[in-house]
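Quick one: structure tokens for this chain, please?
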Amino acid sequence: MNTAHETQRSADTHPAKARRTRPHNSEEERLFVAHIDGLHIPRYAELPDIELYMDQVLTYTDNQLRPLFPREEKILTSSMVNNYVKQKLIPTPLHKRYGREHLALLIFVCLMKRTVPISDIQRLFAIQSATYPVQRAYDFFCTAVEESLRALFSGSVRADALGEWELEKPRGFAFALSFANGSELTPARRLVISAATATANKIYIEKCLEFMELDLGEDEQW
């Protein structure tokens, strides 16, 4: 029976049996980190000021969010949009056209639904709408997601504040944002920041696995 030391030595002397990973800090990873450093999710006022039809909504949403999702994953489909209307996550479109509020809510849902159940998103929407207008809540969430991703991938933040709360500069890679006056955060804001943190961590896990790409096939030969 091999000891742990002998097993490790066997892996060292038999490269075919060892796990293989992509080189750390590959070009693909560096490009993605650079993308995160400059990431800007369009704010409410930057969303198209003309109403869009369904196919335009799908294309626009995919263009804005695609780098944050796995290549094979469908970010948004017409069936999804119709279901969100039925579930009252977004308002019913007028004459099958979608405006800024629709786009903001759809981007919000697309980012959150991968870590938060739809039923909880509905509850979060209800709490936010009772406290803040859609524009303010959406812009706050976008900033929280961007800075959470930068803290994870770059160990830095670009914004000085999130709303009226001052952001502290992380000392290296951080798994959550830190605030100078965090004790003053309202419960509604804490909910949104928690949702943004969960979204960022989901993206971080997926991208790290993609970059490392462990060769599981080799493990099965042990």
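Residues 1-23, 214-222 have pLDDT under 50 and may be disordered.
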